[in-house]
């Protein structure tokens, strides 16, 4: 992630800011040297990012570079703060005539302090540049920190639609199972398959099917994820039915309210993304569901990657997802790359695309993400770069899919990489508000306008959001009545990718962690994310301050779903 940090820092070292700082304190020469050093390093970062996957010494070099880049960012922020502070003092005519020599507000003391910091940074950067020469990195020139977004660019606001490829038979079978399971009081139908095969998409297609909606009095969708808590699930069911927050504190009270809502009504409940393999937890929820409604014909659809979960919960036939054929993967990719403003694909491009489709391992998510990346590439050589990537020869073990998805991440601009990896702060299946997310990107300095670009920061943030959505790194969008996007989610695998990329910079505490302790591995944490209930906040904050040497950003995610 050093590439993204340096991109942000260079964005702050624009000539106007440099001139303003040097005019007041005479740092023009040092800041020019700093800018030149970072630009020199930036030219080899693409090769370094690629080589650190296999070379441990390069990985350590990248971590040292990242630490120095954050130091530069801190210095620039101190300059910006001091300039603003002095403007406020002058405006309010509150300048002190007498102050202690070593006061931070003293211009001479401040200049000495900053001069020492810049000197130390330049010394560190010189060592880093000398090491880079030893590694013999390939220079790719200066990296454009801001993606060029064409005003006529056609973004796919609903990329998950491509996953419908190959779903026809699956949808018919699931709908038949739901409609015909009328004898039992509670029928449980698991949809099982590895991550990325489209289990949730299939469940949605069945859930929204016209015949299904007519057959059930109430339909409820709950995203469970890895935290299976019967009281929490029951509360969310009640909130879904009433469309109001639930203030009830006890499980008995919630069950009593659910009885009123579902009395003599046939309901369909979808429990999406279930990880729980403890049969006692399922028995507790099942007992409550049986007590809520004694009518026959109630259905529960469960999506899970685990055969153990399916075995514990199922009452009738289990539906197993299958991988797509190579032709079906190519169909998804082709749909993503074939837009109205694009010229038809050449035969060579189609041949390259089909070769890439063969490497999607039959997983729709992979085809969607790679298709989104390829849609931004016009030249045949750019598609060949994806086909000939070293990623394909280094696939092994459980992280094969993540390695393929990272190929898409590697083709993002530095600023977009920052915006994407920042999303790792949220829990899985979290509904990210678009406006709040863009505001956080702005606060982090990720949205740097390119040269000659006079767009507002919000407009740049909207463009970034659209690009990540078009690349299928965002999904499950929710729109308002005017068609504007309010929120989105990340697929579990995509969220895993964001966590993998940001693991040295972002620390998560809370959730089901229980007695979490911090280790020296996360000595320097840039972003600390706490997921906690109201009564646990002080406990986790004390842990953070006691065990983290330093962190720059604190994000608090409450169990209620609000975050700050």
UniProtKB/TrEMBL annotation:
Cite the Disease resistance N-terminal domain residue spans from the record: 5-93
Coiled-coil region(s) at which residues? none
The UniProt record lists the Disease resistance protein winged helix domain at: 425-498
Give the CDD domains listed for this entry.
RX-CC_like
Q: Does the keyword Metal-binding apply?
A: no
The biological processes this protein is annotated with in GO are: defense response
GO MF term (any one): ADP binding
Q: Which Pfam families match?
A: NB-ARC (PF00931), Rx_N (PF18052), WHD_DRP (PF23559)
Q: Which domain of life is it from?
A: Eukaryota
Q: Which residues form the signal peptide?
A: none
Show where the NB-ARC domain sits. Answer: 170-340
Q: What keywords were assigned to this record?
A: ATP-binding, Nucleotide-binding, Plant defense, Repeat
Q: Which PANTHER family match?
A: DISEASE RESISTANCE PROTEIN RGA4, PLANT BROAD-SPECTRUM MILDEW RESISTANCE PROTEIN RPW8
Protein's name in the database:
Disease resistance protein RGA3
Q: Which organism is it from?
A: Quercus lobata (Valley oak)
